[in-house]
Design a protein that fits this description.
mainly alpha
């Protein structure tokens, strides 16, 4: 088990410039009409699929600090069987799964999944959701590749 990342994204000038843009893109989503609780559920589910401990550590702690219940946090991986999520949240989680697993699906996100999400979210919220899924997947992949260690994140640590 590694305790240090292969590359320190916060100290490297090139990575630092890139991170500023990713963080700015994330801020656009944070400031959107997409509910913050849904945003955290999306980040958590994508991070579970991608095996990103760093992002799981960050987003479960941020969600808990924002008032998310431990029951809901523990049930994200099994959202299909869980009764603790709204129909809108379930649609967002399904879109997140298909959007994260594009390489596994023959056609990417199915029309059925898209239409279900569109029943619950307006165009601006869907735009925010698609953007968030893309951004969290990028963060997941960077953290997994450099093996950023997880466990020490403190809520609010990055702003």
């Amino acid at each position: 088990m590694t305790t240090e990342a292969r590359l320190n994204f916060f100290a490297n000038p090139t990575a630092g410039r890139l991170l500023k843009h990713f963080i700015a893109a994330g801020k656009v989503v944070t400031d959107s009409a997409l509910p913050l609780s849904t945003q955290e559920l999306i980040k958590i589910r994508a991070s579970q699929i991608n095996g990103c401990g760093f992002c799981l550590d960050m987003h479960t702690k941020e969600a808990a600090a924002a008032g998310e219940t431990s029951t809901r946090l523990h049930m994200v991986a099994a959202w299909r069987e869980a009764t603790v999520f709204t129909e809108a949240e379930r649609a967002a989680l399904e879109l997140t799964e298909q959007g994260t697993r594009i390489a596994d699906a023959a056609g990417g996100v199915s029309d059925e999944v898209w239409e279900n999400a569109a029943k619950h979210y307006d165009e601006d919220q869907l735009s925010a959701m698609v953007s968030l899924i893309a951004v969290i997947n990028a963060f997941n992949r960077m953290n997994v590749m450099v093996q950023n260690p997880a466990g020490d994140y403190q809520p609010g640590q990055f702003g």
